[in-house]
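Blinded run. Sample ID left blank on purpose so nobody reads anything into the name before looking at the predicted structure. Input follows.
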Amino acid sequence: MVIVTGMHRSGTTFIGKVLEASNYYYYIHEPLNFQFGVEGVPCWYPFLDVEGQVNRELRVLLDSLYNMKLKFKVPLSKGLNKFFRYFVRSRGHLDYLKYKIFSLFKKREVLIKDPFLALSAAYLAHNYPDVKVIYIVRHPVAIYNSISRMKWKFDFSNILQQSYLVENYARDLVNLMSKRYLPLWEEVALLWMVIYRVVYHHAKVLGTEKALVIKHEDFSLSPFETIDAIFSFLGYERNSKVDSFIKENMFATSAKIDERRLHNFKRNAREIAYAWRKRWKSEYDRILQLVGNEIKAFGYEDDKTNIGYNN
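Blinded prediction complete.
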């Protein structure tokens, strides 16, 4: 099993789709999505330590995920859509049904693409010898721009209710996360810090045999070199199907983002990687001031002139 995870809007979907294009994997979409995923998910971004001792219920759920014994939620629907939704409950459920059918005839590894596993995937990699985790990191300013485009908000009660997570990774952020109102830039920066503090620690605990950290910007600027590193980590080689997918979706002439689409493929990834630099906004200064030196742990710089890709 391979898990591709990281903060939402960090590029997990695209890299998951690149890996799926290889035909080495059965792809499962976001089983820990609190709204559309499997039953029993307690919140957005549930945390579990590598030993699985913090949250027994979540440990049982993740064990079921590893064994591919899942029960997806039935979304609220009306009329004929209610009938359809009972059988095909979500995108992830459809992926799961495909896996159940086609795995009877052809054996492949399972690929879980789920940003909401970012704080708990290490448990699976630590406790099951055939599980590896790919963590995707993206600059917090780029994530802020993406989330702003989607007009998404995050309720920090999802974090604050997890006492072990707060005590060990976010104790200094509690007062900020507890504010009645947070501007979006602050919300994104705080969530980025919580998630990537855990990712940084979990990746170190797992080691390079079990965890690989990839920067979204590195993949955008050097897709073939980065995907080769990913496949080498997974024990495969890049094939022609992957080449075709990358060429079709990452080398378009336009860097313009379609504001209406959740995922924008078929664009000039190199131009988009640091497009936000070209029109500096005051929120960017605030994000960088809050995040401070923490972005340096992933190879980013923290000033206006040097932010970005390090050769």
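Unblinding after everyone has recorded impressions. DSSP finds 15 helices and five strands in the chain.
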